[in-house]
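quick q for whoever's on today - can somebody do inverse folding on this one?? i tried earlier but teh output was garbage lol. tokens:
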């Protein structure tokens, strides 16, 4: 079976080229200007993508698919479908599940679900501590060895396939909570370094959180809360940088949200520490004053609901759409993150796609933390950062696709011989983000009602259309 994706602008080796992509046996077989011979070949199915863009599929190193344990929020099927619809071909699932994937036995259910239901490549994280309780470390060596066996096909547990069900270990993380005890983190890093693995850390020190629900700033004041401090994030980043330096462990910081963390990471990189980090679209495009404005608008609108300026769209979901962990911070923090992506301090953008049920999120700022992102992140960033001239389209692809694949050892990129994991976008299409069109079970996103450019029109995994 051969498929020819013709006449698109294709992102290959760092820039765009107007060319044709021939896919055969799941890999990119050739990139070529002339297609006359191929187009005449009846064994080749030709799809015309004139005027469209083809990107290497996005790689999201931070999603929550809630299976096993919380299937009413999301599952591997709906989560991976949402990924495909957003242009993602690879997603890494966080371990705050039930059971927590802290042993081979406790990872089995998730691995089976991935194998049976995922339509994109889903790579699970194992936890750092048992039950993510911070009290006992997992058996890193046993878990790493098991995945090596899976990868080599030396175990019968899961049939080795070159399809979307091929499973690889993302790394180790206690996402959802910080590893508070420095001695445990030091031992974890020492052992993971010996395995050549990576630790992705959610940095949050509970004892100095200072407050709850939102960032400690103008919004917190208006709502009458004591807000969440910036130190609760950056002090753990600071500690972990020292530990990574000492142990040599490959270290990645999840969802960086404060200017202090950006500065610490910038300095650590200069000193040669093996560190990378991600931030999320909401930290790059929103500050707590924006959220405050939305709160005031909602108060004024009352039960009528807020009508946004964009085509008269009426907001359907409540203020819970602005609650996630870490919280949306100040304008100074947002600006520091923009500088961070520009100068390479911030390596990549992850969604932290974290769906909850309608009932849970309807509690507004008192509900659980987490918003969805897979189906709107590229369009909001393309519209908010590329169309406005803050960064180039090439840079956005680098942040969403190339950098995460390099750091987390994913074979990726549109080049001859590579797996055909790619996505097709129409960048001219303009529309309003409406969560009711999403495949995810989650509905709460801070970008509801936003007018954007860029619609994902197809996604291919190992050469097969998955959306
Ligand atoms: Zn987290």
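ok took a stab at it. sequence:
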């Amino acid at each position: 079976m051969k498929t020819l994706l013709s006449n698109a602008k294709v992102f290959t080796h760092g820039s765009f080229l107007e060319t044709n992509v021939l896919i055969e046996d799941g890999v990119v077989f050739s990139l070529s200007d002339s297609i006359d011979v191929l187009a005449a070949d009846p064994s080749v199915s030709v799809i015309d993508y004139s005027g469209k863009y083809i990107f290497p599929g996005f790689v999201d190193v931070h999603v929550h698919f809630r299976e096993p344990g919380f299937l009413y929020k999301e599952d591997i099927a709906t989560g991976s479908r949402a990924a495909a619809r957003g242009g993602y071909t690879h997603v890494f699932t966080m371990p705050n599940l039930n059971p927590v994937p802290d042993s081979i036995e406790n990872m089995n259910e998730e691995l089976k679900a991935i194998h049976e239901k995922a339509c994109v490549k889903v790579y699970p994280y194992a936890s750092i501590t048992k039950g993510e309780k911070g009290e006992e470390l997992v058996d890193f060596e046993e878990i790493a060895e098991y995945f090596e066996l899976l990868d080599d096909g030396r175990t019968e547990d899961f049939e080795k396939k070159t399809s979307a069900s091929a499973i690889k270990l993302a790394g180790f993380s206690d996402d959802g909570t910080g590893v508070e005890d420095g001695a445990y983190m030091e031992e974890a890093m020492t052992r993971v370094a010996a395995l050549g693995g990576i630790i992705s850390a959610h940095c949050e020190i509970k004892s100095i959180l200072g407050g709850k629900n939102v960032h400690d700033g103008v919004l917190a004041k208006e709502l009458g809360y004591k807000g969440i401090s910036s130190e609760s994030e950056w002090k753990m980043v600071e500690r972990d940088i020292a530990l990574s330096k000492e142990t040599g462990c490959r270290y990645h910081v999840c969802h960086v949200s404060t200017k202090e963390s950006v500065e610490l990471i910038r300095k650590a990189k200069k000193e040669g520490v093996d560190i990378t980090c991600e931030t999320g679209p909401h930290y790059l495009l929103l500050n707590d004053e924006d959220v405050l404005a939305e709160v005031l608008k909602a108060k004024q609108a009352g039960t009528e609901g807020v009508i946004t300026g964009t085509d008269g769209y009426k907001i359907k979901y409540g203020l819970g759409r602005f609650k996630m962990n870490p919280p949306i911070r100040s304008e100074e923090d947002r600006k520091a993150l923009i500088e961070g992506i520009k100068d390479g301090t911030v390596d990549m953008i992850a969604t932290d796609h974290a769906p909850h049920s309608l009932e849970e999120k309807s509690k507004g700022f008192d509900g659980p933390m987490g918003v969805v992102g897979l189906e709107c992140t590229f369009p909001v960033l393309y519209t908010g950062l590329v169309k406005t001239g803050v960064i180039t389209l090439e840079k956005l692809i680098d942040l969403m696709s190339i950098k995460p694949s390099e750091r987390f050892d994913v074979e990726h990129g549109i080049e001859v011989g590579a797996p055909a994991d790619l996505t097709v976008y129409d960048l001219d299409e303009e529309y309003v983000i409406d969560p009711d069109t999403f495949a995810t079970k989650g509905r709460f996103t801070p970008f509801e009602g936003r007018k954007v450019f860029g619609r994902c029109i197809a996604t291919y995994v190992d050469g097969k259309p998955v959306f």
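fwiw The first strand starts at residue 2 and ends at 12. also The chain has a mean pLDDT of 94. so keep that in mind when u check it
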